[in-house]
Write a structure and sequence with these properties.
The complex is a heterodimer. Chain A is mainly β. Helices cover about 0% and strands about 55% of the residues of chain A. Chain A has no helices and 11 strands. In chain A, strands 2, 4, 5, 9, 10 and 11 form a 6-stranded mixed sheet that branches. Chain A has a 5-stranded antiparallel sheet with strand order 1-3-8-7-6, with no helix packed on it. The termini of chain A are far apart. Chain B has 1 helix and 11 strands. In chain B, the strands form 2 sheets. In chain B, strands 2, 4, 5, 6, 9, 10 and 11 form a 7-stranded mixed sheet that branches. The longest helix of chain B has 4 residues. Chain B is globular, with a radius of gyration of 13 Å. The chains are: A mainly beta, B mainly beta. Chains A and B meet through strand 5, strand 9 and strand 10 of A and strand 5, helix 1 and strand 10 of B.
Amino acid sequence: QKEVEQNSGPLSVPEGAIASLNCTYSDRGSQSFFWYRQYSGKSPELIMSIYSNGDKEDGRFTAQLNKASQYVSLLIRDSQPSDSATYLCAVSGSARQLTFGSGTQLTVLP
Amino acid sequence: EAQVTQNPRYLITVTGKKLTVTCSQNMNHEYMSWYRQDPGLGLRQIYYSMNVEVTDKGDVPEGYKVSRKEKRNFPLILESPSPNQTSLYFCASSFGVGGNYGYTFGSGTRLTVV
């Protein structure tokens, strides 16, 4: 079992819709959770971090964490074509190193 | 501008010819790390460094070396590159332990070994 798992997609949503990206992790000792956005051929860019159970909102982005279910998600409201990218979930486990999922490719259709 | 600078951006080399990919950060970050990214496998950690002269292996260290003689620099060395090291490489840095604060990534180095 991979330590951090994401649906690879591709996930397609129409412009203006809510995009929902999911991630599960295996290390129950994980304490820090991150979402990165990566455009094709570019480096990952940190867009959200979350450390405690519940929701954290930043503009059109909402990160949700449920440690009991070992689940973290990212919601993108009012999706725009410029949101089309690969979204990487990253988790800091017991060893305090970031482990990345394989990423979910999101396409927002105009 | 706060940034992580990698060089070169693109590199084509032949099997067995030693090469170094440089990484430098100007944010006074203690923590630095190297990742490789391959299709379907995501980002995998090669080596990391908690501070000057402190380095440790990540998940895929075989065939790579690193050094951290200065806080700002963390070069990746391939002593005898092989075709299976063809990949996209990223250097990253962070305050404190990387897992707590997230990383700032460099622009990447696309390496092809023929």
